[in-house]
Amino acid sequence: MPATDGSNATHSKPGRSRKWLRPRLDWLLIFVPIAIALRFVPALENPTALFIVSCLAIIPLAGWMGRATEHLAEYLGQGVGGLLNATFGNAAELIIALFALSRGLTGVVKASITGSIIGNVLLVLGLSFLTGGLKFSTQKFNRTAASISATALTLAAIALIIPTVFHQAAAQVPVELGGWTPTKEQALSLPIAVVLFLTYALMMIFTLVTHRELFGGPDSHGPACDAGAELTLMETEAGAHGSWSIRKSLTILLVATAFVALISEFLVGAIEHARQTMGLTEVFVGVIVVAIVGNAAEHSSAVLMAYRNKMDISISIAIGSSLQIALFVAPLLLFASYLFGTPMDFEFTVPEVVAVVAAIIIVEQISGDGESNWVEGIQLLSVYAILAILFYFLPDVHH
Amino acid sequence: MPATDGSNATHSKPGRSRKWLRPRLDWLLIFVPIAIALRFVPALENPTALFIVSCLAIIPLAGWMGRATEHLAEYLGQGVGGLLNATFGNAAELIIALFALSRGLTGVVKASITGSIIGNVLLVLGLSFLTGGLKFSTQKFNRTAASISATALTLAAIALIIPTVFHQAAAQVPVELGGWTPTKEQALSLPIAVVLFLTYALMMIFTLVTHRELFGGPDSHGPACDAGAELTLMETEAGAHGSWSIRKSLTILLVATAFVALISEFLVGAIEHARQTMGLTEVFVGVIVVAIVGNAAEHSSAVLMAYRNKMDISISIAIGSSLQIALFVAPLLLFASYLFGTPMDFEFTVPEVVAVVAAIIIVEQISGDGESNWVEGIQLLSVYAILAILFYFLPDVHH
Amino acid sequence: MPATDGSNATHSKPGRSRKWLRPRLDWLLIFVPIAIALRFVPALENPTALFIVSCLAIIPLAGWMGRATEHLAEYLGQGVGGLLNATFGNAAELIIALFALSRGLTGVVKASITGSIIGNVLLVLGLSFLTGGLKFSTQKFNRTAASISATALTLAAIALIIPTVFHQAAAQVPVELGGWTPTKEQALSLPIAVVLFLTYALMMIFTLVTHRELFGGPDSHGPACDAGAELTLMETEAGAHGSWSIRKSLTILLVATAFVALISEFLVGAIEHARQTMGLTEVFVGVIVVAIVGNAAEHSSAVLMAYRNKMDISISIAIGSSLQIALFVAPLLLFASYLFGTPMDFEFTVPEVVAVVAAIIIVEQISGDGESNWVEGIQLLSVYAILAILFYFLPDVHH
What we know:
mainly alpha; 1% strand
């Protein structure tokens, strides 16, 4: 039964009460046009207002994304549904990063890659485990699928360490004897990007073709909405109104994602202004703030799924999204940087490398046993808090 | 049946033979007053003698602690009993560290934190696995409980790495542009200590309240002494004389812990003299010698439990003690350092960080499968030996 | 049924068709005398030809080694068979390293130790998982055995990190106050080598004596060749001709190993010439090329076993070989270096340490669940490719 408050307690039909409840969240959609107005009408320019309005506008949009993904998952299986969600979530980030890249801001791009990885793996997964764990004592998930993703994250971590190790080692040799130069760093990074990209492609074949059953197909589990008695977080109508068609789900997913991408960009623009007034460093904004905002969609979907005890979707959103950033978005951005004429390399700063490695090690440990509980969520959030403290105090090196 | 030697073979009543055996260990208690005399009677001052006498005196005291803890475990469950043991073991270390801190010796305090973590995780657990493994081919333990502790250790390791990474990265920026200063290191360490402390508090709620059954409650297993046929290591009378009351157990535990703390302090005082005559460095004494002595109580309890195939107690003593040092004692000492007016930070030396990370990585791997055998004990002890070799050769940097 | 091509399709007896097939591979044995002639007849000196001919000659020899090992495994159990294989594989490398050591080339020896570890753990195991995984959807193996080996590898990784950490830390102290000197590095390395060596000896007792059943004895599984319907990769006659005697297996194993060692040495000699003409660095040749060639035997055996779904042999060849290099061959070489009067230490370069640690972390993760599939093979090979890219671009530091 859905949660109802006093004003709806007299309604006898659940479907009717839901009709009353749903619009209350959807009323927040009013902030979408307000955000657009604040952004594009010069007279209304006010970054702080734009920031707050964008935050409010993104909530119902993310909710629609979550519902559309859940309906699609009925047809595609939990794993593929999660993959789909991750892809649409990262589409926004990819667009923002391409903008930054076209202006040569490779440092910002790298910081947002770092932030997206640790944000998804620690913050999103931590909140999912915590939310789900407060309702269910222990939640179980597919160990094999989680383990393959975790291993791919280790691969990504190694790929991020190597260019930094290369710089440190090669810098000890004079340039005339083959020592470090920015060109060599780029020459090293390009084939590494190719290896990551090919690995990602092969992993997609594994997930979608040869071992599809591992990731949950339409026959391997009942429809996602069969649990009629489940408490719904966002008052989805799925139970009452039946399943959406694939076409309807896809259309809503695409439209909602487009708006999330648009509003995310407003947010990012407004944050730069907030950074200066609040005295935050660029690295903190790139790694922590942009990543939280940019991943709001994955965030709400993963937490919602955890709350419904669909941990496999939750984990494939959180880990899958990090994975996609590391193995797909990062190489794509490196390839794109050559098109823009500002070749990027994969050399991250030492604190970024340590943050990514720490995040990946702890998530592997926690996901290794195929079970989660609320204290594991707390542990992931604690690591995120410690890394956020590091990036808060860290001065900007790129000056 | 208890092990009996030739002189007792004619006694038909096991209870009687035990009465004859027990005093033989308790006779060592005579060294407690001797140690006190050597320490406080000026005419008898002789640090080397005090060292040897204190070592002998600590053995029966640790034995009494082990027995009292075992009796308490009957009422509180294995996990909580282990936690209790770890707390009483660390009480001694906390007192010693507070003494050192009041004199501004933050380097010694940090070395003893490092040493306690690696000592418990490698030496105590290694000897437990080896001792238990020589008697039982394979010993099983609760994977979930071990895994939650191991994850918390990873969290602690990350918290110890971050301040060192911060120093290295921030030192590259000039101070006037926000570069590294000791004050910044302290400002970074304080919120990290708060995060660790809160995580520890929440983990206690998990262990003692929401998921108590995972850690073994009074109903989840039979009384700890039901295995009548088990061979007893220290001739405990539990089987013959029945259970102790909670009050008796607690009183003996408190009195024995107080004496262990007292004698431990004698040992630490005497070791400083031995250090200079034997040519040992401060870091070796802090990380290796103080830690072995300071953890003697956990040591004997954990090994005794492993010998009795109660691996869950054994592991919760060893890992739980490290955990408590890292997440509870270390933050508490940092908070206390502000009271003493000598603010401490969490920046450890690189060898200390490497030692802690190495110890935690190998213990996680070994405890990950929920089984132990003697060769896993050897592997933990080998890592301890390698780290001890490192600290033996390492020159004192703080000069 | 064996794979048969068109020309053999009319043969009705499998035994007969195999007779026709086997010689086709064995014809490659003609390259063994050709390689010997190219090496020892001065008129025929041509390093490039020698390189190609040696590569061709090693294929049938490695095939004979694989068959002999498989037959021995019927008597000795899978684990011991794998150990045996690893020993014979590493005999060749040990001989080559002793040659290099006698000329004081400790850098080359260390590079080949690094290369053997990462080559076995990433390349050999990766190709095994890939080959086996293309035939079988999921392959299972003994988790406990794999986990003990993986833990021993972690121990080895820690032992390799410590001397490098020692150098960095001790170098900050002036030499007159006990700072870093090459003699101290050797003094630190010698007891570490002793610890590794003792650990290896105790692990052998565990594997061969106290826990033999874990690693598969003659009674714990059927004969290795009972699967009459299996597709044979190298047209072994085992199924048709019955088992070989222990004596026959051992003789063939010894003769084939001797020739593999001989031809491997030809290859190594020829590679040095190829290095200069192809512009490769010494470190790339040591870590990548020598290791691939030196481990060709383990390589083909492990891949063959994976193809036959005997994953326990495959893994004990690949991981066991790395283990033996790290815990047995490396200490032995260090001890031998004192005999040659050119004491070696265990200080590896930072890229070497990172490569070994990365390899070990990912293999532990992948082998932790007791299952493999083709994408895990791809992941291991990707890490190998990334490390190979690093060593390709890395300039030689030892000039």
